[in-house]
């Protein structure tokens, strides 16, 4: 079913050697820890960071990195968290300082998506009123995966919602290309008008077809995991998780309406579905700005942000994103050069955000928030020159070995929720037993005696 479009040798070589030409080196510095599966980072124009957490809470991190003991919001009783479900997104109204409104995207106890508005407490800025929920939109999720979940306000004041294709694999319901479902889409709401909150200038409101849904702004997405607007020019960026081969980053200038991003007819720049349904009815699509293959442990893109912070001028205008499986950060510069790097700290990156001065941070689902830094500007050297390490067999049913180059290493294994399920000092050639682990995807972190580390994907069956 899959055929690949040619990729030029120039692009491959340029992507591989670009590190030598860059004048920055992205890394992380620990800012806060002790959080419960953080998925994102937001601010309200002051020094606090608001952290949505998968189980259904929002925590506040202060300017010194301390975490407020009481969550800003706790709706764990409303939220389902198995698989890719949970409290997945948070956005504050542009006029939050005057109206106190904020919006969340969560999976309810029936497994379906809910977009709701809450209000801050009238007498405590660090506490929301859990009794103020107003549901703006709900829609069914046929499977537990591909919920999407992000939401953000655009420069136009509209609320944008990232919706996955409904799950399973390969979009079996062909939902992403259908305008009769909200799945596999970017949705756009005007939260300042009456229900159903659909702006009159959404592209399918007055299209003459009563089957198309007015909430849709763009379509053709598989699992858009993190969306963002460039604060300098309004460009719209999407990290869309691929099927079995290709991850992609999408970018459109000024965020035009009715963009078709291509799934499931295309996975990245490669044909995924060459059947007549796609060939005969597929409308012109906008290809990704870059795509990359699921090699070197990479398997799940986390969309990021364009750096507009005050600290590292060489990063200005650079789009910084991550791969959840490999534990790498990555960058796209103005010439669309791509570079992957393994940071000193953190691995399971799931969301980016800024503080009130545009400092950029990244969330690790294991419980930490890291500040994005430029090692060259700081005058420090990278510690991430660990030679290639392999895991065999992979997939495995009961055990595996690591090709350690030193006598021993610290080995940590995490499930896809960021929970540590194994930790041990492992000797060279020692077999690691995992027969007690459930089937699924795991992240293996290997730390050498000198502090160098590598992150690998492990599949247990």
Summarize this, please?
Helix content is 6%, strand content 38%. It has 4 helices and 32 strands.
Explained architecture:
- The chain is mostly beta strands and 461 residues long.
- It folds into two domains: 9-378, 6 Propeller (Neuraminidase); 391-460, Sandwich (Immunoglobulin-like), CATH 2.60.40.
- The protein has helices at residues 9-21, 96-99, 276-281, 375-378; strands at 26-32, 49-53, 57-61, 73-74, 87-92, 101-107, 113-120, 128-139, 151-153, 159-163, 185-189, 216-219, 224-229, 236-240, 246-252, 266-267, 270-271, 290-293, 301-306, 319-323, 328-332, 338-341, 349-354, 360-364, 368-374, 391-392, 399-402, 408-415, 420-427, 432-433, 440-447, 453-460.
- It has a four-stranded antiparallel β-sheet. Strands 5-6-7-8 form a four-stranded antiparallel β-sheet, with no helix packed on it. Strands 9-10-11-12 form a four-stranded antiparallel β-sheet, with no helix packed on it.
- Strand 13 and strand 14 form a beta hairpin.
- The chain is globular, with a radius of gyration of 22 Å.
- Residues 1-21 and 381-386 have low confidence and may be disordered.
Strand order of the largest sheet: 1-25-24-23
Kindly state the number of beta strands: 32
- Compute the CA-based radius of gyration: 22 Å
Are there runs of 5+ residues with pLDDT below 50, and where? 1-21, 381-386
Q: Which structural class is indicated by helix and strand composition?
A: mainly beta
CATH superfamily of the largest domain: TolB, C-terminal domain
Assembly form of the protein: single chain
Shape, principal axes of CA atoms: globular
Domains (count): 2
State mean pLDDT (0 to 100 scale): 90
**Biggest sheet, open or closed, and with what strands and sense?**
4 strands, antiparallel
Give the CATH topology of the largest domain: Neuraminidase
CATH architecture of the largest domain: 6 Propeller
Share of β-strand residues: 35-45%
Helix share of residues? under 10%
Cα distance, first to last residue?
25 Å
Instruction: Please give the CATH class of the largest domain.
Output: Mainly Beta
